[in-house]
Amino acid sequence: MSALPTPPRSPARPQRQRPARPPVRGRGPRWAMRVTTSVSVTVLAAAGIGHALLTGLGSDIDRIDPFKDMKNRPAHGHGMNVLLVGTDGRDRITPEEKEKYRLGGAPCHCTDTIMIVHLSEDRKRASIVSLPRDSYAETPAHIDRTSGQRHQPHPVKLNAAYAEGGPQLTVRTVENMTHVKIDHYLEVDFTSFIKTVDVLGGVRICTVKPLKDTYTGLDLPTGVHDLNGGQALQYVRSRHIDGASDLGRMQRQQRFLAALIERATSSGVLLNPIKFREVTGAVLGSVRADKGLGSDELIDLGRAMRTFSPSSSEFTTVPIGKMGYAVKGIGSTLKWDEQKADRLFRTLRDDKPLAPHRVRSKALRVDVAPQQIRVQVENGTMTAGLGRRVDSGLAATGFRTTRAPVNAPDRSIRRTIVQYDPRWDRSAKSLATALPGSELRPVNGQGPLMKVIAGSDFKEVHKVRAEDPTQGEFETVTGDQVVCP
């Protein structure tokens, strides 16, 4: 899909030169008004957001108290921690939207998405940790909000804590599991999700392979897509695209958040008080939050995010130690890797980055990692040493070349050829990405070994990297690694 259009600018009018006038007495008030106006505009621009204009912003939010009567809470670390919870809320969706975006069925009144959003103390970094909804969890003692029955601590899937005890039990359970003190609680449902995306003008998502889910109706071919709110909801809800199920869905949710940050920070919304008020007013009317998340906090967050870019955000999922951990009466759960999870949340409490420092890579993203692709290079020209140059270039970017290039039977090849078995077409496309302008030529029965026949058009090998760019102990990605290039 094409990029969102940019409104044309009116041509600048030439400035007329006027003769200097002598000072005129008695015009002090008008001069003072001009100075005051200029100073006000300067202060407004410097602050990024007009405080007076945005006073009362938090009054649109549906307030809850998720911290009521909570005791023995974790010690406060550095920075701010927001528990971001996504609920299905399909009872507030119009019948037309339900049908169009496959949102049928009754709402489950449970959490579909759970994330800890950590904003660093200097407000220069956002670390987002996804907590799988099927995580094995143990709730503290509580009163069931539906039956009124008092429960002793017992095991559940993490998303069931909301159904039993609402936001308060969800916060208590997350704090008990992570030892991270939650400062604010923000609950988003389908309605507020769609509004957020639409009021920002959509988000741009890039895919290196087709994404299709018959359950949600998602159907995205390979390429670049500008999604509206409903389409973005399909994208983040889809669980039946591949075998990764909920873990794959969380990766797409993280990519979506990176794209949303990129959209918000590049569109000028955060620098325009009127637009910021319009956007937040449309969105906040359909979210729930704790009483402490008021106008001042929202303004501070908006001001801090003025300098944000996709590289300012980092995303990871809590480390999983055991998939399919069976619990009687609950079913299959995901058991966290306790040691790695402890280190992850300690890093969060200490306000340290999750992703290691790195030099930004200009490598092109591909579906299959070059380290998984075996290649035999042939020189299809009369240029001595060309085969060795191609072989070395491919090896340098990670491809498993034979390191023994040979001469091709035909030495008059003009366009470089990637010869492959159709069963390994994804690997062939990844290899061809490293050889721009090359021709893909399928050969049945060739097997997993790719063949590159270098032609006279060869100039250089482009660096490529796998679609999954996770790094470091916590397999973290930064926003600039997952947004569209």
Automatic annotation (TrEMBL):
Segments of this protein annotated with the region Disordered: 1-30
Residues in Cell envelope-related transcriptional attenuator domain copies: 111-265
Annotated LytR/CpsA/Psr regulator C-terminal domain residues: 372-458
Sequence ranges of Pro residues compositional bias: 1-11
Gene3D superfamilies (alphabetical): 3.30.70.2390, LCP protein
Family listed: Belongs to the LytR/CpsA/Psr (LCP) family.
Name of the protein in question: LCP family protein
Gene source species: Streptomyces phaeochromogenes
